[in-house]
Design goal:
By secondary structure, the protein is α/β, with parallel strands linked by helices. The protein folds into two domains: about 1-185 and about 240-255, UDP-N-acetylmuramoyl-L-alanine:D-glutamate ligase; about 275-425, Mur ligase, C-terminal domain (Protein-Tyrosine Phosphatase, Chain A), CATH 3.90.190. Helices cover about 40% and strands about 20% of the residues. The protein has helices spanning about 1-20, 35-45, 65-70, 80-95, 115-120, 135-140, 145-155, 170-175, 235-250, 255-265, 295-305, 330-340, 355-365, 380-390, 405-410, 420, 430; strands spanning about 25-30, 50-55, 100-105, 125-130, 160-165, 180-185, 195-205, 215-220, 225-230, 275-280, 285-290, 315-320, 345-350, 370-375, 395-400. The strands form two sheets. A nine-stranded mixed β-sheet has the order 2-3-1-4-5-6-7-8-9, sandwiched between helices. A six-stranded mixed β-sheet has the order 10-11-15-12-13-14, with helices on both faces. Strand 10 and strand 11 (about 285-290) form a beta hairpin. Helix 1 packs parallel to helix 4, helix 2 (about 35-45) packs across helix 10 and helix 14 runs parallel beside helix 15 (about 405-410).
């Protein structure tokens, strides 16, 4: 009851603030890649315009109004919430000349109807949809229902708005027929307006081992032009998709390609999204611990498989349970195990009861049983991995939030005193 009252109060404030300041709103939704895409778009727009994006993971009915107000949550403190309300009142009573011209808002959808509420709350000019995947299936039943929910944002766009759609996803591509707004498409497949080719993991000129990996480069293709792009802070071909979406939004707002590509050089994915972290014993960790779905896990494994190592170095996939998959849980985990083998990963360490099916899938596909290990929690798995890994090894760590896979990264990182700076879920509420 109190939460609903809080939503209503925050919603009223947010609407009035938006009416007064009239910022341009870019909204991003999708099953996977929302936050990374949001950050890429923010980097591009903020290079030219005064821009604000979601605080932390504030992407719901309470978080988005807080971002519009420009305040963090009051938490369990009445005084904290009173400060939020006073700030909102101040914005309405007085003119704040520093209020952002652009808002880049990630919109999450855990349940049917979430996007409808948010799109009514916020007048969106540019809507971006990243992908439709098996996330929150227990609440949506199937992928078509998820696509319908994401499509609410695109249907709500005005005629003078823009729908930025990932044409690599057939369900997202189909949304082009559901909007009166102008459609700008992006993706890797031919036929999209903005595409990427010649994608490669970059490293220094004298590449010898994993410590020299520096990011991803690609050729951006748009309107007959080809432009080289380097993402020094990014590892993962699938994160190039976020950069393409950012290019599309930048072009909507008449930012030239040179400015866009320079801005993307500073783009760094949020914590726990394919972050490169130096590990103990001269290893390298791909920290993808923020969350996990079958699609995102498969993409991370693919990237791990694409990186060449010397024969005497090994690749480890340390994977936790993927949660909230409903009826497809067993099958999805087994298919991830098969992907581990398909992408030539040397060793598999899993965390949780559900992830036993990842091991079963891998073994059934031909992975030696003595290369597969399962542990009940992330702490035990981290200690085991610490003993096993050797210099030059490359380690992917990924799992759903509830599995706390970042604890493994902390166990394996060369500088654990930097955990608060580099890892997800390091604030007091998670460390209790």
């Amino acid at each position: 009851m109190l939460k609903k009252l809080l939503e209503k109060i925050l919603g009223i404030f947010a609407k009035k603030i938006l009416d007064k300041y009239q910022p341009q709103v870019v909204a991003i939704t999708g099953s996977v890649g929302k936050t990374t895409t949001r950050e890429a778009i923010f980097k591009v727009l903020s290079s030219v315009y005064q821009t604000r994006t979601n605080y932390k993971n504030y992407n719901n009915e309470i978080g988005i109004p807080l971002t519009i107000i420009g305040s963090e949550s009051g938490g369990h403190s009445l005084v904290g919430w009173l400060k939020v309300f006073f700030k909102a009142v101040g914005l309405l009573v007085f003119k704040n000349n520093n209020y952002p011209k652009m808002l880049v808002l990630e919109m999450g959808a855990d349940h049917p109807g979430d996007i409808k509420y948010l799109s009514k709350l916020v007048p969106v000019k540019v809507g971006v949809v990243t992908a439709v995947a098996e996330v929150h299936l227990e609440f949506f039943d199937n992928l078509d229902n998820i696509a319908k929910e994401k499509g609410v944002l695109i249907r709500s766009l005005p005629k003078d708005g823009f729908a930025v759609l990932n044409f690599d996803d057939r369900r997202v591509k189909a949304l082009a027929e559901k909007t009166a707004a102008k459609v700008i498409s992006y993706g890797f497949a031919p036929g999209a307006d903005i595409t990427a080719g010649e994608i490669a993991v970059s490293h220094d000129a004298n590449y010898q081992d994993v410590s020299t990996i520096q990011g991803v480069s690609f050729k951006l293709k748009y309107n007959g032009s080809t432009v080289p792009v380097l993402l020094p802070q990014v590892l993962g071909e699938h994160l190039v998709s976020a950069a393409l979406a950012a290019v599309a939004v930048g072009l909507v707002y008449d930012i030239n390609l040179h400015t866009i590509t320079e801005a993307l050089k500073t783009f760094e994915p949020p914590k726990g999204r394919m972050h490169l972290i130096n590990g103990i014993k001269g290893t390298l960790i791909i920290d993808d611990t923020y969350n996990a779905s079958p699609l995102a896990t498969r993409k991370a494994l693919y990237q791990l498989g694409q990186i060449n190592l010397n024969n005497y170095h090994h690749k480890y996939a340390i994977l936790g349970d993927m949660l909230e998959l409903g009826s497809i849980t067993e099958q999805a985990h087994q298919e991830i195990g098969e992907a581990v083998v398909d992408y030539d990963i040397d060793y598999l360490i899993t965390v949780g009861e559900k992830s036993r099916d990842i091991v079963r899938g891998a073994v059934a596909k031909g992975m030696p049983e003595d290369h597969c290990f399962n542990f009940p929690d992330s702490v035990e798995a981290g200690k085991f991995a610490q003993q096993r890994i050797k210099a030059g090894d490359l380690i992917l760590v990924k799992g759903s939030q509830g599995m706390r896979m970042e604890k493994i990264v902390k166990e394996l990182m060369a500088e654990p005193d930097k955990a608060a700076e580099l890892l997800v879920r390091q604030d007091a509420s998670w460390l209790k």
